[in-house]
Amino acid sequence: MKLSTGLGLLLLSVAPGAMAQTAPAQTPPAPTAAPTVPAVPDDFRISRAVAAQTVDCAYLEAGGAGNAGAMLRAACEREAATSHAVIRWAATADVIAFAASHPDGLPILLKDNIETRDMPTTAGSLALAHNAPGRDAPLVARLRASGYFIMGKANLSEWANIRSSNSISGWSAVGGLTPNPHDPARTACGSSSGSAVAVAVGLAPVAIGTETNGSITCPASVNGVVGFKPTVGLVSRTHIVPISHSQDTAGPIATTVADAARVLTVIAGTDAEDAATAEADAHKTDYAAALDAGSLNGVRIGVLRYAKSYSAPTLEVFERNLQVLRDAGAVLVDIDTAPDLHTIGAESFKVLMYELKADLNAYLASTDAAQVPSRTLADLIAFNSNSAEENALFGQELFLQAEAKGDLTTQEYVDARATSFRLAGPEGIDRMMADNSVVALIAPTTSRAWTNARDDDDNAQGSTSTIAAVAGYPHLTVPMGFDRDMPIGLSFIGGKWDDAKILSLGYAFEQKTHARRAPGEGPAVE
Questions:
Q1: Is the pLDDT of residue 44 over 80?
Q2: Measured distance CA(148)–CA(105) in Å, rounded
Q3: How far apart are CA 367 and CA 373, in angstroms?
Q4: Out of 83, 215, 236, 295, which one is annotated catalytic?
Q5: Which residue out of 4, 125, 172, 191 is catalytically annotated?
Q6: How would you class 7 by CB atoms within 10 Å of its CB: exposed for 0-12, middle for 13-18, buried for 19 or more?
Q7: Any residues with CB less than 8 A from the CB of 402 and at least 6 apart, and which?
Q8: Measured between alpha carbons, how far is 1 from 24 in angstroms, rounded to an integer?
Q9: In this model, does residue 126 exceed pLDDT 90?
Q10: In principle, which of 140, 198, 306, 416 could form an S-S bond with 338, CB 3.0–4.6 Å?
């Protein structure tokens, strides 16, 4: 089965028995024109365009918008290469006006499951096409207060890949298919596909993605950029369309570790509406200031040798980069014994099904009923059943499984969460680090991007996301080279609240390698 790598779904590969199967989905067509989406309410000044200019390029070429204009001009120049990467809800005039009045501001894109006061938030679903409740997620408010301006929303795998086990990474009914810019026949991975692609081609220097399992790190890796999944609870999830309060987090996708660290410094912090962030203020720091190019020297790092399912070219690149780490002074320790990955995956899948129902119902109840008639997961299932557009490529068997679950007092749920967290965290990452006296764990993030063709045997190969996702611990991917001319990343994983340490180690590696290459820059030099 083709792996639906996205929010929560990467772990399904280790628990195939937990999934009800549907008929194979059709291969999605190449992106062409924008799909039709109902208009948003008239009282929101919003324009919608896919693969259309965000800003008036002529205005910018004439020198408008100061320093910020240079970045926006770059966005104009790269527009043709990013079909379906971004769904631009922000009004052109508003973007230009903000850029002109904030010449030192930094443009940023948001995954289209993060609410803003001036744009709809659809999660890629036509059921949320009118969802514009006029509120900023706390992380958005923090960005605005720090001088960032929101260019628009990035496409995603619909419902962050949690609707179906046959879902297609990078596809949504609202945004169409976001392809990999290094090879449009291959996946951009998901579910933060648009966020990663937009950064890879230079539409914005940084974007915000979200992850439950692999949805930041996989798209960042296969598109050749940096992606950071923070400790769960470091960044607020309020007003973000949810899957799982146990595993969900937002995080930055950027061209450099330093840019990711700067954005994390802004968005991290306690939010009274999100209980998981109660300790965030006590642990957050200036992550950019904490970066140290010499941080690899003398540290012990665990190499996850038990992870063997990567492609041979990826493993060859990985071995070469292990020598880079040794040359930088790191002491590498092989770890051959894996945690119980099958049980972690199976029990975490149960958690996702229970929490999807509870958390999504709570989110829908917080929206405007006039804008979002679907008030429950059951209503969404009914909406999808009556929508030809939503059913064109795959079904909704995961939605159906979640709807059949009880509430969060059900013993099966309580036991599943306790077991999956214990095996991934205290008896997984924590034990591996303690037993081997290492400060971080490393492995390839995944192999090269696969194709979206269902009958193609070049499937996704290898992943490191599940243990960090289920434990809620930080996970960074940094470009390390190329697998048959497609980007691949190196993963750094740490313990809870080790975010600054993991970013610094990744930064030091990045300074030694500078392995990132933008799409179209020529063949890899290995």
A1: no
A2: 5
A3: 9
A4: 215
A5: 191
A6: buried
A7: 352, 353, 354, 356, 357, 360, 377
A8: 9
A9: yes
A10: 306
Which DSSP symbol is given to 451?
A: B
Looking up tokens 């609202």, which residue turns up?
174
Q: Confirm whether 191 is a catalytic residue.
A: yes
* Side chain identity, residue 445: T
* 286 Cβ neighbours under 8 A, 6+ residues apart: 265
The rounded distance, in Å, linking the Cα atoms of 84 and 86 is 5
Share of the chain above pLDDT 70, in %: 81
pLDDT at position 101, please? Answer: 77
Rounded CA separation 224/515 (Å): 9
Per-residue pLDDT tens over the stretch 91-123: 666 777 777 777 777 889 999 999 999 899 999
What 3 state SS string does 190-222 have?
Answer: CCCHHHHHHHHCCCCCEEEEEECCCCCHHHHHH
CA dist list (Å): 393 to 173, 206, 387? 10, 30, 12
pLDDT confidence bin for 9, thresholds 50/70/90: very low
Q: Report the distance separating Cα 263 and Cα 201, nearest Å.
A: 19
Q: Which of 421, 418, 433, 526 is nearest to 471 (CA)?
A: 421
Q: What is the DSSP letter of 174?
A: T
Residue 223 to residue 228: CA distance in whole angstroms: 14
Nearest to 201 by CA among 222, 228, 182: 182
Task: For residue 111, indicate whether it is catalytic.
Answer: yes
From CA 24, how far away is CA 228, in angstroms rounded? 32
d(CA 494, CA 127): 38
Contacts within 8 Å (CB) and 24+ apart, 326-331: 327/512, 328/296, 328/297, 328/508, 328/509, 328/512, 329/294, 329/296, 329/297, 329/298, 329/299, 330/296, 330/297, 330/298, 330/299, 330/300, 330/301, 331/298, 331/299, 331/300, 331/301
pLDDT in tens, 271-322: 999 999 999 999 999 999 999 999 999 999 999 999 989 999 999 999 999 9
Query: How far is residue 465's CA from residue 212's CA, in Å, rounded to a whole number?
Result: 9
Tokens linked to 453: 């063709």
Q: Which of the following is catalytic: 2, 4, 83, 111?
A: 111
Report residue 375: phi and psi, to 5°: -100, -10
pLDDT for 361-393, tens place per residue?
Answer: 999 999 999 999 999 999 999 999 999 999 999
Per-residue pLDDT tens digits for 332-364: 999 999 999 999 999 999 999 999 999 999 999
Q: Which residues contact 157 (CB under 8 A, 6 or more apart)?
A: 4, 6, 7, 124, 167, 168, 169, 170, 171, 172, 190, 191, 193, 215
Query: How many angstroms separate the CA atoms of 468 and 249, rounded?
Result: 12
